[in-house]
Amino acid sequence: MRVVEKLLKEQDFVAFVNIVVGAYPGRLNGTQITKEQLKKLFMQNQSNDESLHYYGLWENDKLIGGMRLHDFQMNLFSKMLPIGGVGLVAVDLLHKKEKAAKELIQHFFNIFLEKNIHFLALYPFRPDFYKKMGFGYGPKIYQYLVEPSTKSTLNI
C-alpha cells in the first residue's frame, strides 16, 4: 500500500535526493557533493520557508517518489487569492511506469482542496502527462535567458 506523507527526517531527505538525482540525470550530476548540497538545501527550505513543503510517496516503508509543494498568492482582478503549486516531482526509476507520479499529483490536488484552495499551478515540462491530468496548454510563453556575463551589442 502506498502512503504520501511530509518528509521530516534527515534519512527521508537523503533518499529523496537520490531519487531526484536519478530522475534528472541531465541536470544534476550524481556526485556526493551535489547530493549533500541538495539535501542541505531541501532541509533548509522545509524548516525555514513556510511556503515550501516536501512530500514523499512510500510503498512498503520505502520512499519511491516525492514532490515539493508551494503556497503562493495570485492577483486575480485586483484581489489577492491563495494558490497552490507543485514542483520537483521525482519518482524512482524502478517505479516510473507504476503511475507513482500520477498518485503524487492527485495527492497535490487533495492537499490544496483540504486547505480550501481551488487554484493550482505548475510548469508542465511534460505537457502530455499533465494534459491527461486536466491541465491545459494555455497561451504560448516566450522565455529568454541571458547570461549575466553577456556583453550588450547595443550602443545606447
Would you spell out the secondary-structure blueprint of this structure?
Layout: E1 2-6, H1 10-23, H2 32-48, E2 52-59, E3 62-76, E4 79-91, H3 100-114, E5 120-122, H4 127-132
Parallel strand pairs: 4-5
Antiparallel strand pairs: 1-2, 2-3, 3-4
Helix pairs in contact: 1-2
Describe the fold and architecture:
The chain has helices at 10-23, 32-48, 100-114, 127-132; strands at residues 2-6, 52-59, 62-76, 79-91, 120-122. The chain has 156 residues and is of the alpha+beta class. The chain has a five-stranded mixed sheet, sandwiched between helices. Helix 1 (10-23) crosses helix 2. The termini are far apart. The mean pLDDT is 82.
Number of structural units classed as domains: 1
CATH class: Alpha Beta
Largest sheet: 5 strands, mixed
| Spatial gap, N to C terminus | 64 Å
Radius of gyration: 18 Å
Number of helices: 4
Mean pLDDT: 82
Q: Could you tell me the strand content as a percent range?
A: 25-35%
Number of DSSP strand runs: 5
Helix content: 25-40%
CATH architecture: 3-Layer(aba) Sandwich
Structural class: alpha+beta
User: Unreliable runs, pLDDT <50, ≥5 residues?
Assistant: none
Biggest sheet strand line-up: 1-2-3-4-5
CATH fold-level assignment: Aminopeptidase
Query: How does the overall form come out from the CA principal axes?
Result: globular
The CATH homologous superfamily corresponds to Gcn5-related N-acetyltransferase (GNAT)
Q: What is the succession of H and E elements?
A: EHHEEEHEH
